[in-house]
C-alpha cells in the first residue's frame, strides 16, 4: 500500500471504523482494501451538504445525474481489480474520483476517463489536494478506453452497459482483468473478464445498480 491519506478533514476515526465494520458484516474480508477505505476521506468527494452522510454505505449524488458508488461496491470492485497485482489500471467513469483515489493507493498508476467535464475538473482538484500523483485523468468518451497508455493490467468500468466495448477488451494486457457492471438497469451484474492470450473468460458476480455508460463527452 502506498500513499496513505489519513486524517484529512473532520470525520472521526470512529465514523470510518463503523463503515469498515459494516463492510466486514457484509462478508468483505480483504483487510488491505478495508484499510485503504478507512483511510480515504470520502467526505471530500461529495458536496459539503452531503458530507455528514459520506461514511454511510450508500451511493450518493454528485451532480449531473451521477453518483459516487456505494463503499461496499467500491470494495468488491477494488478487490477484483487488484487480484492480479496490476501495475497499470484504467478506470472508465471518474465521477467524483473516489474509486480512482482508492486504487491509487494500491497500484502504481491509475488512468481514469470521464465524459462530463465539470465532474472531471472537481476530481482532478481532489487528486491534487490529496497529493495523489499517480493518477492521470482525461476528459473523453471512455467507450474508446485510453489507447495512448494501453495495454492495462486491469480495467474497471463504473457505469453499466448491455455489452462490454470492444476497445476496452483490446486494451487489456495478457492475463489482464476487466470488471464492469453488465445488463439493463434492474438486471445488472458485476462481470469479470480475464484475458488469456486471445481467449476471454467470463465470470459473474453480485447484482449491482449503476448509472448507464453513455456515448460522447460534454
Ligand atoms: N467511479 C466514480 C466515483 O468513484 O465517484 C463513480 C462513477 S458514476 C457511478 C459513473 C460515471 O461514469 C459518471 O461520472 C458518468 O459520467 C461516467 N460515464 C458514463 N459514461 C461514460 C463514458 N462513456 N466515458 C466516461 N465516463 C462515463
Order of helices and strands: HHEEHEHEHEEHEEE
CATH class of the domain at 60-208, named: Alpha Beta
Provide the CATH superfamily of the domain at 60-208: Vaccinia Virus protein VP39
Q: What bound compounds does this protein have? A: S-adenosylmethionine
Kindly provide the radius of gyration, computed on alpha-carbon positions and rounded to a whole number of angstroms.
16 Å
State the total count of DSSP E strands. Answer: 9
Provide the spatial order of strands within the biggest beta sheet.
5-4-3-6-7-8-9
Low-confidence stretches are: none
- Proportion of β residues? 25-35%
Q: How many helices in DSSP terms?
A: 6
Shape: globular
Largest sheet: 7 strands, mixed
Short description:
With 218 residues, the protein is of the alpha/beta class.
Structure notes:
By secondary structure, the protein is of the alpha/beta class. It has a domain at 60-208: Vaccinia Virus protein VP39 (Rossmann fold, 3-Layer(aba) Sandwich). It is 27% helix and 27% strand. It contains 6 helices and 9 strands, in the order ααββαβαβαββαβββ. It has a 7-stranded mixed beta sheet with strand order 5-4-3-6-7-8-9. It has a two-stranded antiparallel sheet with strand order 1-2. Helix 6 links the parallel strand 6 and strand 7 (172-182). The longest helix is centred in the first third of the chain and has 13 residues, at 13-25. The chain starts with 12 loop residues before the first helix and ends in a 10-residue tail after the last strand. The structure holds S-adenosylmethionine. S-adenosylmethionine binds next to strand 2, helix 4 and strand 4.
Amino acid at each position: 500500500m502506498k500513499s496513505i491519506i489519513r486524517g484529512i478533514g473532520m470525520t472521526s476515526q470512529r465514523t470510518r471504523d463503523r463503515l469498515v465494520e459494516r463492510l466486514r458484516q457484509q462478508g468483505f474480508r480483504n483487510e488491505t482494501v478495508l484499510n485503504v477505505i478507512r483511510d480515504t476521506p470520502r467526505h471530500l468527494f461529495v458536496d459539503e451538504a452531503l458530507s455528514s452522510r459520506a461514511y454511510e454505505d450508500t451511493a450518493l449524488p454528485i451532480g449531473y445525474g451521477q453518483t459516487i458508488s456505494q463503499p461496499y461496491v467500491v470494495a468488491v470492485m477494488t478487490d477484483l481489480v487488484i487480484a492480479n497485482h496490476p501495475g497499470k489500471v484504467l478506470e472508465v467513469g471518474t465521477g467524483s474520483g473516489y474509486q480512482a483515489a482508492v486504487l491509487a493507493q494500491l497500484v502504481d498508476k491509475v488512468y481514469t476517463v470521464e465524459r462530463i467535464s465539470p465532474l472531471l475538473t472537481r476530481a482532478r482538484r481532489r487528486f491534487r489536494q490529496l497529493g495523489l500523483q499517480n493518477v492521470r485523468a482525461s476528459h473523453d468518451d471512455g467507450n474508446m478506453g485510453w489507447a495512448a497508455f494501453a495495454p492495462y493490467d486491469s480495467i474497471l468500468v463504473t457505469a453499466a452497459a448491455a455489452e462490454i466495448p470492444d476497445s476496452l477488451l483490446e486494451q487489456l494486457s495478457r492475463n489482464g482483468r476487466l470488471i464492469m457492471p453488465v445488463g439493463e438497469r434492474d438486471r445488472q451484474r458485476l462481470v469479470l473478464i480475464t484475458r488469456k492470450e486471445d481467449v476471454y473468460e467470463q465470470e459473474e458476480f453480485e447484482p449491482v445498480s449503476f448509472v448507464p455508460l453513455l456515448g460522447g463527452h460534454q
